[in-house]
Amino acid sequence: MLIGRPLYINFTQQEGANPDIVRMDQQDIDDLIGFLTDSLARMEACERQGAVYIDQVSPHYQESARNLLHYLSLRTHDLRPLQERLASLGISSISHSERYTRTNVQNVLTLLHLVNGATMEEAKAGGLGLHLGFPRSKQRLQEHTAALFGPERHAGHTRIMVTLPSEAAEDDTLIHTLVEMGVEILRINCGHDDSTAWKKMIDRIQAARERCAHNVLIYMDLAGPKIRTGKVVPRWSSKGKRKDGFIPLQEGELIQVWKQLEWGEPAIYSDEGALVALARIGLSLPELFDQVSRGDRIWFDDGKIGGVIEEISPEWWTVRITMTAPDGAKLRSEKGINLPDSNLALPSLTEEDRRTLPFIAEHADMVGYSFVQRREDVEALQQALHYLGRPDLGIILKIETRLAFDNLPTLLLTAMKSPKVGVMIARGDLAVEVGWSRIAEVQEEIGWLCEAAHIPNIWATQVLENLAKTGLATRAEITDAVAAVRAECAMLNKGPYIVKAVKTLQKIDDRMDAHQYKKKPYLRPLRVAQDFLLSLPGPSDVN
Predict the structure, then answer these.
(1) Does 15 reside within a domain?
(2) Lowest pLDDT segment from 151-155, 268-272, 368-372, 496-500
């Protein structure tokens, strides 16, 4: 693959000069101009190769799809040397140009030609003509956000989404209070409760809309495939009362994960302490049993317990536990399982989802798509909504797996065939999938790609979680909430102090809106961008 000319520029400094003042010679500036000129050519080539995507998206997304391709082309390179040199000249470092990539590069080129001694007419002639610029790119994102999430209360406002608890089906007070406070979106998780409870919540939302004259929107999540542990044999107290069972685990121990098993149970030891039988637990989706390999990592209970698959038999996997809390862990029934190294061929749109979708299509303003990973997953939902007569329903891609993140450019461009699209950064599962040390980096990259596509994103999972549950916020989650209001929407989960959490987030949003913007200090190469360009048809030496 031809990456283009590398950028090596030698700073020179006059003897006795101010050490903070540097200058570049003529060759350095020529190299900058050459690098950026090549970048524009590569953007054009990427646009030609990606024409199959641009032609298929909704008309109001075509400009956005084109810009996303330009951004992906630019981000295949290490731009850190470029930033330093442009900043030394007092010229934009191009680190804030996600929404209008090509125009910004052209503007920088114009300034470099001026520095190089060209007249204004000559400098402008060196460009290729302006395309999407800063004002229109900002307007595009605002338009797409308003279409999906409703109008903003003030410029730069971050919408707030709140997950409704099961009790909201029988409680008028909570929904009315949230709507009265100005919460824009109420979330119903279809992985819990049933259509009877959902309908009661929706009726209460509608009543609150009318009383408060505030058009709060309804977001409903599809449950998606649930990879969970099976049942564990219950325990009995000394008084004969049945209690939930669990399997105690320590680092270094083994556990068998069974393809078909009704009840899991702890390891069995002889009276002398010798191991008689390994601990074992069942798997909720036996169809994925043959889709793993030895050495694949496995995580239980939202990443609280880690392991590696050491042995695979026709009926079970043998897993070596590699991580627990210092005093061990307790593995219980119905706990989530993540397999970040395994290429799982599971349908994102399950049969249960297909049975739920007509209800969502009738009552919701947007649908959350769980476990979406491939282009075909997005197309399956779009076809189902078209069949139900709701192709206009807003689609929220929940990025919660490593594969979804790797495929994000294709997922975005496919989803943009629909009229209203958003992305949820589902940081809980995603952190388990990509690793805790990478989640901060990954959530930023998702935000950049969404901004380049002018697609609004939702900052989700554990936003002010401690405050919502206990009434007390931690310093760390306040800092996280500050980051959350950079997104177009922030999601709060249920909790007894949810009203207090909403008020806190609204205050943070109001204060940060005056001086916060999406500042990106460095631009290293994005592997997700490189992988996407390699997947495009045509010659491989044009990116």
Answers:
(1) no
(2) 151-155
Residue 183 sits at the vertex; the CA angle it makes with 181 and 187, to the nearest 5 degrees, is 135
Record the tokens describing residue 302, joined without a space: 């939202």
β strands within 210-304, DSSP E: 217-221, 231-232, 235-236, 242-243, 247-249, 254-258, 263-264, 268-269, 275-277, 279-282, 297-300
Nearest to 529 by CA among 406, 359, 386: 406
479 CB-side CA count, 13 A? 4
Q: Has residue 517 got a pLDDT over 70? A: no
At 396, is the pLDDT very low, low, confident or very high (cuts 50, 70, 90)? very high
Which pair of structure tokens corresponds to residue 297?
Answer: 């990592």
Considering only CA atoms, which of 227, 400, 403 is closest in space to residue 300?
227
Percent of the chain at pLDDT above 90? 66
The one-letter amino acid at 328: G
Q: What is the CATH number of the domain that holds 401?
A: 3.20.20.60
* Phi, psi for residue 283 in degrees, rounded to 5: -125, 135
How much of the chain is in helix, strand and coil states, percent to nearest 5? 45, 20, 40
Question: How far is the CA of 294 from the CAs of 250, 298, 341, 342, in angstroms?
Answer: 21, 11, 10, 10
Closest alpha carbon to 188 in 358, 363, 354, 349: 363
Question: What is the dihedral sign for C-alpha 294, 296, 297, 302?
Answer: negative
Same-domain status, 125 and 166: no
Rounded Cα gap, residues 158 and 422, in angstroms: 14
Residue 238 in any domain: the answer is: yes
pTM of model > 0.85: yes
User: Both tokens of residue 172?
Assistant: 């008028």
The domain total for the chain is 3
CA distance 282 to 305: 16
The residue to which tokens 């008020």 are assigned: 503
